[in-house]
Amino acid sequence: MLTAIFALATAGASTVCAKDDGKWYSGEIKAGATTTLQELHSDESGAKGGTEYNSPVGYKWTTYLGGNLEAMKDGFAFSADALYRDVYEQDYSGMVSLKRVINFKTDYSRFYHRLDHDYMDNLNAHIFPPASSGWSNWGSSPELADIDGGKTIGTANVYHTDLAPDELFGIARAEWKNKVDFNIPMFPGLKLSFNHRFEQRKGEDQAMTDSKCLSCHVVSNAQSINERTNDYSPKASLRIGTLAMEFSYLHREFDTSNEDLSVVYNGLKGKELFQNRLQYDNTTGELPFSRTPDSTKDSFKGKIRWDLNAHNIFTANYIYSQYTNQTVDGAYDILMGKFGDEIDLHSNIVNAKFHSKINRAFSFNLFGRYQNLSNDSVDIEKNVRTNPAGAPGGDVTLTEGYINNSGWSYFEEEESRSSGYDGNSYIVGTDLTWRMTRGIKFKFGYEFEREKRDNYEHHHVPKATKEHKFSLASDWRVNHNLKFDFDYKFEYVDDPYVLKDAECTPDGSYGVYAGLPAGLYDVERAYEPAIYGERTAARSNMPEYVHEIMVKSHWHPLHSLSTNFHVKYRYAKNSDVDGKDWKQNMVMAGLGGVLTPMKDLVLSAGYTYMYDSYDSQYCIAIYDG
After folding, report:
1. β-strand pairing of 217-240 with 159-162
2. pLDDT tens digits for 460-470?
3. Residue 495: CB partners within 8 Å, gap ≥ 6?
4. Which of 221, 305, 463, 550 could form a disulfide with 163 if both were Cys (CB 3.0 to 4.6 A apart)?
5. What DSSP character marks residue 529?
């Protein structure tokens, strides 16, 4: 729904005194009001249209009050700005300078972010015959779903429960930033700084969780959010002649006191058949979901710049970061096992660049980047349960049942999961700029990237991927009022990122329904090998090669009028997959204009068209119960 907004502001400004009158201070007070032609109704989705971050549209009338104050005398400088619209929309800033030796700056802002409410209307596919009709025609051994007070039964279903259907979700975000600089008079090239940032997100969001076996039952509820982030960052910079250096350290603390949500799974009918197939059910009691862990981040960054001469510059930086998940025990132990230690992620990044201006017409850049990522592995302990005595096959675990029946082990009861992000990558490249004439410029570029993955076998992905990127760009300034830009990019990827054993068979075929299982532990009817084992085709949504063309124009026919036009086409394809090729065709075009008939009035209009299509292949397994 398009919400029309009409803003009428009545502002009164009073200048305390002006600096050019010989006074050392000045100030201004402003006030106004805003009205909306159509209020944002409670049944509208806040994340749609232009109302997601717009606070006034929720009210018929809103007022604002603001002002600023500045002072400067004998090396002392002070300024302050303030704007108050409502409790959710505020901005304040201030600055103090003492002879430029000590400079302090502070900023505070606050706004409200409306969030969407997913009513899950797409989760209504189910097979629920009336209980009075019996179930003999719905399968040989259906599960009696424990919903609607046991009034419905069925075999396969997808349904949802919204425990907060009338809630409007949104987060109030507040951020306070402080910075102080010390310029040491005895060391003109030395500067010390300290930065602090505090952010708080507070409000209510929608949280979701799945059912006990598959995502056939999705439950959502309202969750109170209260998250805080504190950043502390000292920094030192030094310049000695043509060499400049900067060193900084960041310590971040993220902690949360979000509402603890939990859920009790539906009871399972026919426990003598399925108890050992589930890790948890209603007998486990309340289980947590939608938890955000507390964490810390520590980062060190060093930068250098060396001006070899007026035409040659070398820059480089090194960044080391460590992220620590500090919430590794407590409520989630029952779901994911006991990790014991905190979980860390380590990152090392090195960047370097050399720029050279050969003459007035030619210049070039050489650049490179190296990155290494290392994550802790996670140990998983599954909650192994047994069927009750008297069940078919006996009071055994699922693994014991399959071993006794066929000698086949169903799954690992304990395992260590390694990260799919572990590995390293490097990038090297160059670009050359040629200014052919005063109004015509060309730029040629090439970039090579290689990414190597440490745990590729565990995650069924390629060991390494190599990318070659070529680019050609030009701009033509016809005169002061008209300019054209042209860009072409070509990308070729050797062994692009794919998921092996992702779906069905390479020819697109799949297994056929083989009838009812021969027994409770019939291997041929198990997910492995009947479902997972049949998936042998490699698939991807990443391109093997890409062509991309873009043309832009800027035209200023009048001093008060500017226009722009752009069109972009992208074609991508991946033939390095099994089955049907993956393809993308995308066209985007737009035009716009800005008219400034007077100093305080700006009118703008624009139109954008976008067409984006993908061709791929999907195999969907259909199975019952």
Report:
1. parallel
2. 999 999 999 99
3. 462, 464, 465, 466, 576
4. 221
5. I
